[in-house]
Specification:
With 445 residues, this protein is of the alpha+beta class. Helices cover 36% and strands 17% of the residues.
């Protein structure tokens, strides 16, 4: 029996993309320009390429889906402030790779003010940038920087004929990434859908898990569900770590056999319309937690639930993380994995033997999404529209000083949480994380 289909949310409208561009330009002086290149196809091997994914910043401002695009924003320009350069129409190549939008299609389908094909870029870009004193661009992008420098030199060479070259290159990232940090209702709808697809995949993995399967077979179940339900695939490399592999934070080999009596940690999420889901669940391969596994799991679960409950406007990620560290340290002491007073084990970083990472990161078009974590040196308070993960974990090494029942157990529980005016919304709530719920789902298979 085929799984039921999920209603697709509406795509982001051209009007919203236009509003984003206008808001960005309104924050910049009128004698400036923005240069933002899109992504290019990347060779996988010889004449085959990796699946194309647009640069997140260019997607955020345009929704334009093709490679080798360049967005130019020109505040105050009467002929149109948003100009896109895109691939040339080429019937011979389109027979192999699909129809290209071309300049007319970019304006018609994506609401840009003007568009030109890349064959015209060198000539037209020089004229567009003449008289713009500051160019905002991603300074970390070497190709963007080289393009800007080339335009500056070309215009400087024509100074005696009245051309005026840009004087300053400034980083676009701070101006754009703070805007990306607050999600619109349209974005939140897409993120809820990415989370729902991701959740269905995790439920499927729990349902089919059994001793003797390979980690990559659970990965295949997850990623089948991502594509079956309309996602473009994984938002990041799927982690399926059975037994001690769960203690490797970015374990992506996924090649070992799942063994009876061990746990498996799955950190995987679907991408939908470029927005990421990001879920981690840990569960017993055979459907039943052992006493030691459950004792550790209950520590992580209790702390994770409290951390999610703490998400609301005005709270900082540092406050949430500090509470998680305290809760995990208390649990480690109660289980005999640490000794002494809680504050002493926090102060001397003893807990870091078992908890190595931060509790949260931003989520959006990138799985580790852009946006500051601090403002003027102080932790940034949460605001409605932010989306973050909450993912405490414990990773117990298989060392001789560790009680044998706990050796090599890795547990992480992660949910995607949107900050709302009233508090928070758990986007991934449909994946079981209570022990009884997990075991009930797994034994029904």
């Amino acid at each position: 029996m085929l799984p039921e289909s999920l209603p697709r949310p509406a795509p982001i409208s051209n009007a919203e993309y236009c509003q984003r561009r206008e808001a960005l330009m309104a924050s910049l002086p009128t004698d400036t320009a923005v240069l933002l290149p899109g992504a290019s196809l990347m060779t996988r091997s010889r004449d085959s390429e990796f699946t194309f994914r647009q640069d997140s910043d260019l997607h955020y401002l345009t929704g334009f889906p093709e490679p080798d695009a360049l967005l130019v924003l020109l505040p105050g320009r009467e002929e149109g402030a948003s100009v896109l350069f895109c691939q040339d129409r080429d019937p011979a190549l389109e027979a192999w790779t699909g129809i290209r939008l071309g300049a007319d299609g970019a304006v018609r389908e994506h609401g840009l003010d003007q568009a030109f094909e890349n064959a015209e870029r060198e000539e037209r870009l020089e004229a567009l940038l003449d008289g713009r004193t500051t160019l905002y661009l991603p300074l970390a992008d070497g190709e963007a920087l080289a393009l800007a420098e080339d335009m500056r030199q070309r215009l400087a060479a024509r100074a005696r004929r009245g051309a005026r070259a840009p004087e300053v290159f400034a980083d676009l990232a701070p101006h754009l990434h703070e805007r990306r940090q607050i999600k619109s209702e349209s974005e939140l709808a897409l993120m809820r859908h990415a989370a729902l697809i991701s959740a269905q995949a995790h439920r499927r993995a729990m349902h089919v898990s059994r001793p003797g399967l390979a980690e990559y077979q659970l990965q295949a179940e997850l990623e089948h569900e991502f594509r079956w339900r309309g996602g473009s695939g994984p938002a990041y490399a799927s982690i399926v770590g059975g037994g001690r592999n769960a203690c490797v934070l970015h374990y992506i080999e996924n090649r070992d056999v799942l063994r009876d009596g061990e746990l498996v940690l799955i950190d995987a999420g679907a991408e939908f319309d470029l927005y990421a889901g990001d879920i981690t669940r840990t569960f017993p391969v055979n459907g039943r937690f052992s006493a030691a596994q459950r004792a550790l799991y209950d520590v992580v679960l209790s702390v994770q639930i409290q951390a999610v409950d703490a998400v609301r406007p005005g709270v900082t990620l540092l406050e949430i993380h500090d509470a998680v560290v305290r809760g995990l340290t208390e649990g480690l002491i109660s289980l005999g994995l640490l000794k002494g007073e809680v504050q002493a084990r926090i102060d001397d970083d003893s807990y870091r033997r078992f908890y190595l990472h931060s509790t949260s990161h931003w989520l959006g078009l990138d799985v580790h999404d852009v946006g500051p974590y601090r403002c003027d040196g102080a932790p940034l308070p949460l605001r409605p529209g932010m989306v973050l993960t909450v993912e405490p974990g414990l990773y117990i090494p298989a060392d001789e000083d560790i009680p044998e029942a706990f050796r090599g157990i890795g547990i992480r529980i992660e949910d995607d949480v949107a900050v709302t005016e009233a508090g928070h919304d758990i986007l991934t709530a449909s994946v079981p994380k209570q022990v009884a719920e997990i075991e009930a789902l797994m034994i029904k298979k």
